[in-house]
């Protein structure tokens, strides 16, 4: 039974479908060559995509039906046909490499393999601005996605699972085989994942709690400063009002300040001994 989960999927500075950009780079590698059927061509990627791998292969549909296909750790079984049917197809393969965990995340799980993907396209006119995306119909055996050169501790080997990423969810395909092979009835993005340890989950919640605590403290400080200013201004206003009501003194402005003012009165001198007058 397939399980569906939401997942975080971002691809900075690219389109909503990462393969759209990488597909164009793969097709560019064919423009400078006369592509031979069955030959795998590796795309030249810019420096900001270092660590990824993109390649493309052209196949005849009748060959795919009669023999299947084997390329870049992908095995497509016999009796597979493109939908809608075309005479020739391109299959673009990509490996996200060390960028996998940056672009693809599954809550509660960690990636233990790189994310790999393959998609089929109509090969009628590779120079066209719009290339038709195809589906693959595999009525027989499923497609194999191999993850070679992966070694896991025994505890991880028992928990590892295969997943397929789509635009808005994660499909759990089941447990990965002992040979690190995942099986799927369709094309897409694939990886092997492992449930995160409890300590890692506690650490994540602890980090989130610290961040929320700092944000809450900052909000409280801002509110406290605003209340302090409001109370101080109110007290000053009350003191000024009481002073105005108790003594009727004239006021004068000195610069930008309002100061109380009273008429000047000189006290007349009085002699202590009146006989001296």
TrEMBL record:
Q: Specify the domain of life of the species encoding this protein.
A: Eukaryota
- Cellular component, GO annotation: membrane
Q: Which InterPro entries match?
A: DUF1191
UniProt keywords, alphabetically: Membrane, Transmembrane, Transmembrane helix
Transmembrane residue ranges: 205-231
List the PANTHER family. Answer: PROTEIN, PUTATIVE (DUF1191)-RELATED (PTHR33512:SF4)
The identity of this protein, by name, is Transmembrane protein, putative
Q: What is the lineage of its organism?
A: Eukaryota, Viridiplantae, Streptophyta, Embryophyta, Tracheophyta
